[in-house]
Amino acid sequence: MSALLTSQYNNVQTLALQFPETSALILQVYQDLALNKQWKTIQPISIPDLQTCVLHCREPGSDWLVIVPIRHDQELSLNKITQTFGILENTQLAENIPFKKLTFGIVARDSTVLYYHISKDLVPPKEH
Known about the structure:
Elements: H1 3-16, H2 23-36, E1 41-47, E2 52-58, E3 64-71, H3 78-89, H4 93-96, E4 101-107, E5 113-119
Parallel strand pairs: 3-4
Antiparallel strand pairs: 1-2, 2-3, 4-5
């Protein structure tokens, strides 16, 4: 692991430890992004109202994502999604980026991470 990646991991770990209930999820999603997907731009942001950290990141050549780590067995209702959007819109995070979509990083028991993108409004399909 490079020195930059180690430093970034230590920063994520320090923030994740503030949230014992979700720290393993935060670290698992971070590791998936940094090691499996090899994304270089990943910024953890503490969101106490969600009782977790989100990962503000982007794949090279793509838009910024706000990833909220959750367990695979955690309920994801329309109310939960609306509440999450509301909390994130009222944080410093929303000042830095146009916030129209969030991504849930759903961590399975076997450590697989599924990314579920949710847009606030209707989005036209991408052309191939």
